[in-house]
Amino acid sequence: MDHARPRIDTAARRARLGRLHLLAPAHRAARTEQAADAVLGLHATDPATVHLAACARLAVPDPADVERALYDDHTLVRLLCMRRTLFAVGAGLAPVVSSSTGRAIAAKERAGMVKWITEGAPGWDERWIAGVEAQALSALAGRGTATAAELAADVPGLRETLVVSPGKPYQATVAFSSRILRVLAAEGRIRRGRPRGSWTSSSFRWTPGTPFAELDAPPAPEARAVLARRWLAAYGPATVEDLKWWTGWTLTDTRRAVAATGAVEVTLDGGVTGLALPDDLEPLPAPEPWAALLPALDPTAMGWKGRDWYLDPDHVPHLFDRSGNIGPTVWWNGRIVGGWAQRPDGEIVWRLLTGEGGSAAADAVESEAARLASWIGPVRVTPRFRTPLERELSA
Fold first, then answer.
1. What are 335-373's pLDDT values in tens digits?
2. Could you give the CA distance from residue 213 to residue 352 in angstroms, rounded to a whole number?
3. Lesser CB count within 10 Å: N end or C end of the chain?
4. Which of 179, 214, 249 is the last residue of a domain?
5. Residues 207 and 300 placed together within one structural domain of the fold
6. Which of 188, 214, 240 is the last residue of a domain?
7. Domain span holding position 110
8. Quick one: how many helices (H) and strands (E) in the chain?
9. Are residues 206 and 296 in the same domain?
10. Residue 281: helix, strand or coil by DSSP?
11. Measured between alpha carbons, how far is 162 from 160 in angstroms, rounded to an integer?
């Protein structure tokens, strides 16, 4: 019965964020891998988010340390996984993420690509596609690193195109290279290398990779249980719906994974039924008061489906775009209290949407804005997904 369940209130959940997500100054990480592991992975759809999210959690912010992990040590792996979203996850967790979510998504990506090509261009079948892929992999192995354009110069099949949505206002001509290379990346057979410009650039070179299917990964059901346990440890207490949304699993797979973790039901504020690991029911001491400026699509901001406990619903129209992508946010003690942006001259500007925390919060946010500006330096950051408040502040 509900009265027999442990109760975990909102204050306790917010206290966990400062500690477990490495946002309170005393709990920040020494290396990028620790920052990524704390939140299970850094959103990587927008390349700037990886660096901004990592550096927000580093005691000494340094984009070079993020690049070391991604491109030198390969201790962070970009993987199309949860919710068909690109994440940078720790190399140790990558096999689990691949088996639990990534492989099924890669299979869907391949099926979609094959259908797109074979139906749009009769005469080109799966055998032809496999030949083009083999040529692309061979060309990349020979070059060591290459852009999509360089690979297309070597492989004629990558230069083929199809017109999508003919006759529509949004008609477009799409090169085979974009679809084929995306599938090879989803399967881990190639990986994104260093960007051609700064760390905010979406233009990058490809490098050879190890297929995720060849990694030493547990079977999918076991991998889902491992990932569910890791997620509950980092994001719990939370609901089944939160985990289902975060992973993109079916409800059945989500419930089975939760059952395998031994999670117990707890009561959250508002009478909501949540889940927590049985050895993780005691409240953590609240960290010292803290502020954070987190980037668009930060994993903490996007960690749950139900966000009322850390985000006022009235602020959603200001901080999200129409597709549900969150923009840059300002945090105070485990709650989103505003947003921030960078102006063309480099100035970091912010606005609080609530008076919570008073002058202490404002002073802490100003300090974090100065910290952010100090390490960004001359780099200019424009989120890929623009939100109303970010557009207004950056104008």
1. 999 999 999 999 999 999 999 889 999 999 999 999 999
2. 46
3. N
4. 214
5. no
6. 214
7. 104-214
8. 15, 14
9. no
10. coil
11. 7
